[in-house]
Predict the 3D structure of the following.
Amino acid sequence: MGRTEAVRTNMKECVAVSSEVPVIGTTMLAERFHAATREVTLEEVPVPRPGPGQVLIKVAFCGICHSDLSLIDGNFPASVPVVTQGHEIAGTIVKLGPGVDQWKVGDRVIPSAGAACLRCRNCLRGNFAACLRLNLMAFAYDGGWAEYVVSGAIGCSRIPDNVPFEQAALLADAVSTPFAAVVRTARVHLGNAVGIWGVGGVGTHLVQLSRLAGGTPIIAVDINDAALERARRLGADYAFRSDDPDLQARITEATGGRMLDVAFDAVGITATASQAIYNLDTNGQVVTVGMSAQHIDAGSFMEFSLLRKQVKGHLGYQVQDIQILTELLSLGRLDLSESVSAIVPLSEIHRGIEMLQEKVGNPIRILVQP
């Protein structure tokens, strides 16, 4: 049996597709973030009703993302006074709003984590993917740390029957954002020498997706030995510590002297961005995926301009990227089985948040199960 067929068989064994639709009560358990006090609470709230063009989804799993923590600790500004967090969702449609005929009850889906404002200049031109005031799920409206969530019918992606809900939940950000960084912003292609600074949740997926795109070699850089070992296991050709005084010499040797065509900074601090920029080849580019309040130091204007280096910022993904990723999973081209680091029940959401904050077990992604 080939590897692809083995993955397909394993996925089929892991997924149980039920034709039964769960009974919908009038209230549900949900996490609620209170902006004024930055308090996270568990509350019984009314089950939302889908409006025109919307669907109600029974949440199977929802990821805990670093952007969720940024809202809690105040680094990300609150959009509304109280909101249910969680934007990496996989679940089953249990109710259709008026006018919805492209989905049916029982369909397994991943909802899009954003809604265009329909008012900015890009939306008025019909360029909804480039909305300047995108309303983000779990920030501007309720997300999936709850038993049910409402989503627009347009923007949902179908989950193939052989893809586990656990892995599907990762796609709406944890994997789709790195995918868009690799494919759309950096445009990694066959033969590109690729370096990834920070191989945690986002960085690990950057390793896997850069390899899929044809990057050669793939070099992982981190200060955590366990994370580096995992990166090697999941596709990195080389793994180097960022505090190694001979880091540049090691990258020079690994690339045969040509240095890096593409470097991803998945940490988002001055030190990692500077290291990545310093190790670029002529016409090389750094794509920043990590975020912080620190500043980018790109070195001297002389070296930066002479070598025609580039620095690009990246955030988010396009909705169609999720569907592409579901196909890669279904066909066994992408394996996310190691990306689910832990699953906590919704009733223990505080423990899940703490696990990510403290980086217990070097998690790629911790999931909430309502």
